[in-house]
Write a structure and sequence with these properties.
Beta-Lactamase; 2 domains; 11 strands; single chain; alpha+beta; 24% strand; six-stranded antiparallel beta sheet; Arc Repressor Mutant, subunit A
């Protein structure tokens, strides 16, 4: 509905949608329509329609039961200049949580630290039972981890060769054990756009990973999703995870470029 303010047209639906988005902050990351209605003063049926519209556009993500909503990564496209003071890891958290929940595991953002990958953000599904203790600040070797393989796959050939040499020097025995699967993963990425680590890094767990970089920054980061190997038992399930991670990477690349300037 359009109204007028001082002779100018006013689209009240747009203002109401923005009012809904403003309800979400660090202390209120998941909200139901009744809570949003109370905070905005809007009728609950109106709030519900707004939330479903915002969900359709990717600005909100509904929980599996559909009762509550949280911000979606498309919010970032509303104005990157307002995000300059935020860390990439914090901006990635909503989409990582969505991927973790969807695949009943954990989703992470990591970057290289010498010959390891350092976890910058990690989100777990509400009822995941992963028997590996990784958290923000944890490091895993590049040469045998899915996130490390994705990082390698995203590097330019010269940088990739140098990193492999560094890994060999850092731990010759570990390198000899995992050189072949690491190189196979790099080739796998060239064919399908993501890498898989099936029971290699940790028995019973499988990881799907993609590099995250820009034409100027190359593969500065990697995104991954880890779950029980039974969840990723089929090629179709691994492909779905790869597509979800690549979509997240596509949305995050403009943010990386903005933060790098």
């Amino acid at each position: 509905m359009a109204e007028k303010l001082s002779g100018q047209p006013l689209v009240t639906g747009l203002l109401r949608g923005l009012a809904v988005l403003r309800c979400f902050d660090h202390g209120r990351e998941r909200l139901g329509s009744s809570e949003i209605a109370r905070m905005t003063g809007l009728p609950q049926p109106t709030v519900w329609r707004l939330c479903k519209t915002l969900e359709h556009g990717g600005y909100l993500i509904a929980d599996p039961d559909g009762a509550r909503f949280r911000p979606g990564l498309s919010i970032l496209t509303l104005g990157y200049s307002a995000l300059d003071t935020l860390e990439l890891s914090e901006l990635a958290r909503p989409v990582l949580q969505d991927i973790a929940t969807r695949f009943q595991g954990a989703a992470s953002l990591s970057t290289n630290e010498h010959t390891s990958m350092l976890y910058l953000q990690r989100c777990e599904a509400p009822q995941s039972f992963l028997n590996v203790n990784l958290r923000v600040g944890s490091e895993v070797p590049i040469i045998n981890s899915g996130t490390g393989w994705a990082y390698l796959a995203g590097l330019a050939p010269a940088a990739q060769k140098q990193m492999l040499q560094d890994c060999r020097k850092a731990d010759p025995a570990l390198y000899r054990k995992y050189e072949k699967p690491a190189l196979a993963a790099i080739a796998e990425y060239a064919k399908q756009g993501y890498v898989t680590n099936i029971d290699v890094f940790f028995p019973g767990l499988s990881t799907v990973s993609v590099p995250l970089g820009t034409p100027t920054l190359q593969a500065t980061y990697a995104l991954n999703c880890t779950s029980a190997s039974s969840v990723f038992a089929t090629a179709a399930s691994r492909k779905q995870a790869g597509e979800a991670l690549n979509k997240a990477a596509q949305l995050l690349r403009p943010v990386m470029e903005r933060l790098a300037t």
